[in-house]
Specification:
10 helices; alpha+beta; about 290 residues; 5-stranded antiparallel β-sheet
C-alpha cells in the first residue's frame, strides 16, 4: 500500500476503535502531513509519521489557546484530547467544519488574526523562536544530501540571502510574542462562527509581522500598527524559507520543484515581494 493508503487506513481504524464511525475518508490536503475528513462521523483528522511531527505540542497548545478565547479549531469533543498512534502514524482528531465561503474576507481574516495574537500574549507556552525556522531552512540549503538538485550557485545565493535577512530582522529589535507561524489561507477555516486557525505545529515566537508575511496583501490593510518595513523583510524571508523547503529531498508539496524554481527567480528579481497566495494563483492558474 502507498503511504497515503496506509495513513487513511490507520486513521479510519483508529476512529472506529473510538466509536466514531469512519467508513470513508476524504483527502482535504496532502503535503508533509495528511488532512482527512472522516465520514460519516464528520471528524477532521491530521496524520503524520510518528517522529515526523510535533503533535503533542499542537494538542496542548490548542487547548490553552481555546481556553484563552482564541479563534482556533477545537479538538474533537467526543474523544480524549490527545495524540493517538496507529501502525506507525500519529493521529490527532479535530472538530470538522463545513466551509461557508471559499475565501475568508480580508477584514474578518485580519480581525481573527489580531484576536489570535491578543490571546497568544496571555498564554505562557514554551515554543521555538522564528529564527529556528530560518536555521532549518539554512541547514537544508547547506547540505547537498538534503537538497541534491539545488545547483551550487543557487545554494550559495539562497544561503546568503537567508543569513542576511536573519541579521536585518533581528537588528530591528522588534517586540516578539507567540505567533501562529504560518497563518496562510490554507490554515484558515471559514465557518459560521467566523475564521478559525488550524495547524498549530508551526507556532513560534517572533514579531507579528512574521505572521502577517504569510497572509494575503489585503489582510494587512486591516491589521493595525504594522511596521511595513519589517513586514517587507519578513515577506522576503518567507519567500526564501519556502524556496529552501521546496528543494528538500522528499518534499511532498504539490508542484514543489516548480515553486522552488520560481521562488529563486523572484528572489533574484527583487521587490516587490509577492505574498504566497499570489504566487500560488500564478503557478496554479491556467
Amino acid at each position: 500500500m502507498t503511504d497515503i493508503t496506509r495513513a487513511i487506513a490507520a486513521a479510519t481504524s483508529l476512529a472506529a476503535s473510538l466509536d466514531l464511525p469512519a467508513d470513508d475518508a476524504i483527502v482535504l490536503h496532502n503535503s508533509n502531513k495528511l488532512a482527512l475528513r472522516l465520514t460519516p462521523c464528520d471528524v477532521f483528522a491530521r496524520v503524520a509519521f510518528v517522529g515526523q511531527e510535533v503533535a503533542q505540542f499542537e494538542v496542548d497548545l490548542a487547548q490553552r489557546l481555546a481556553g484563552a478565547g482564541c479563534p482556533v479549531c477545537p479538538l474533537e469533543p467526543r474523544v480524549e484530547p490527545r495524540v493517538y498512534t496507529r501502525d506507525g502514524f500519529a493521529v490527532t482528531l479535530w472538530t470538522y467544519y463545513e466551509p461557508v465561503t471559499p475565501d475568508t474576507p480580508p477584514a474578518g481574516y485580519a480581525k481573527a488574526l489580531e484576536q489570535l495574537h491578543v490571546g497568544m500574549r496571555r498564554v505562557a507556552a514554551p515554543s521555538p523562536r522564528f529564527t529556528d525556522r530560518i536555521t532549518e531552512a539554512q541547514q537544508v540549503v547547506a547540505d547537498p544530501a538534503r537538497s541534491p538538485e539545488l545547483a551550487d550557485a543557487d545554494r550559495v545565493f539562497l544561503g546568503g540571502r537567508l543569513a542576511s535577512l536573519r541579521r536585518a530582522i533581528e537588528d530591528r529589535g522588534a517586540a516578539e510574542q507567540l505567533l501562529h507561524g504560518e497563518p496562510h489561507p490554507g490554515n484558515v477555516l471559514s465557518t459560521k462562527s467566523g475564521p478559525l486557525f488550524i495547524d498549530l505545529e508551526t507556532c513560534c515566537r517572533g514579531p507579528v509581522e512574521f505572521d502577517l508575511a504569510h497572509v494575503p496583501e489585503a489582510v494587512c490593510e486591516y491589521y493595525p500598527g504594522l511596521d511595513h518595513g519589517l513586514l517587507d523583510e519578513c515577506r522576503q524571508l518567507v519567500v526564501a524559507m519556502v524556496a529552501a523547503w521546496r528543494w528538500e529531498i522528499g518534499d511532498q508539496f504539490p508542484n514543489g520543484r516548480r515553486f522552488g524554481e520560481e521562488l529563486l527567480r523572484l528572489l533574484r528579481e527583487g521587490p516587490p515581494w509577492p505574498t504566497l497566495d499570489t504566487l500560488t494563483r500564478r503557478l496554479e492558474g491556467p
